[in-house]
Amino acid sequence: MDSKIRLFVAIDMPEVVKVTLLAAASQMGQRLPAGAVRWVKQEQLHLTLRFLGDTAVSQLPAVQNQLTELASQHAPFRLWLKGVGAFPNRRRPRVLWADLDGDLGLLRAMQAQLEDRVVSLGWSREKRPFSPHVTLGRVKDARNVPDLDWDVDLAEMEMGVTAVQLVQSELRPSGPRYTVKHIARLG
Q: Where are the domains of the chain?
C-alpha cells in the first residue's frame, strides 16, 4: 500500500509581508479574549491555491510535473494586502484573514488552470469558489468573539508572485509543520 502525505499548493510571501500580517493579527488579538483565536505562525502564512489533502507518495512526480508546466505558462505578477475579513462573515467569524488585491485576474486564471490539472490527476473538483486570502487565525468559539473592530492598520504592501509551492502539512499537537516539497517558478 502506498503511503500518503497531506499536501497543498500555495504561494509563499516575503518575510516583510509576513511581519506586516503578524502585526495585523496582533492588533486584532489585543481586542479579543485570550485564547479566542488560534493564530497562524509567521513562518506558516501563505496564500493557498488548492488543498490536495492526503496524497499517495507515488503521485508526487505527477503533481510536481503539472505544477512545473502550469508555472511555466504564467508570467510573474503582483499582489498586495488590502484589509481584513472573516469567513463565513464578520458577524460569526470562524476564520480571520487578510484580503488581497492586485493582479487578481491573473491569479484566478492560474488557480482555475491548477484546478483543471489536479482534477485530471484524479482529484474531485473543488465545490467552493476560489477566494484569495491569507488565513491569519481560526476562531475557537465564535461566541467568545465580540463585535470586532475591523479597523486594522494593514499596510497595502505589494509583493511579487514568482513561484508556486507544493507543501506537505504534518498535523501535530503543537500545530502543523510545513515542508516545501517542490517549487515551480513562474515564466
A: 4-185
- Is pTM beyond 0.85? Reply is yes
Model confidence pLDDT, tens digit, residues 5-59: 999 999 999 999 999 999 999 988 888 888 889 999 999 999 999 999 999 999 9
Catalytic residue among 133, 145, 148, 182: 133
Beta sheet of 158-161, edge-to-edge order: 37-39, 133-139, 95-102, 77-87, 158-161
Residue 182 is a catalytic residue = no
Q: Given 3.90.1140.10, 3.40.50.300, 3.40.50.1820, 1.10.10.10, which CATH number is that of 4-185?
A: 3.90.1140.10
> Is 133 marked active-site?
yes
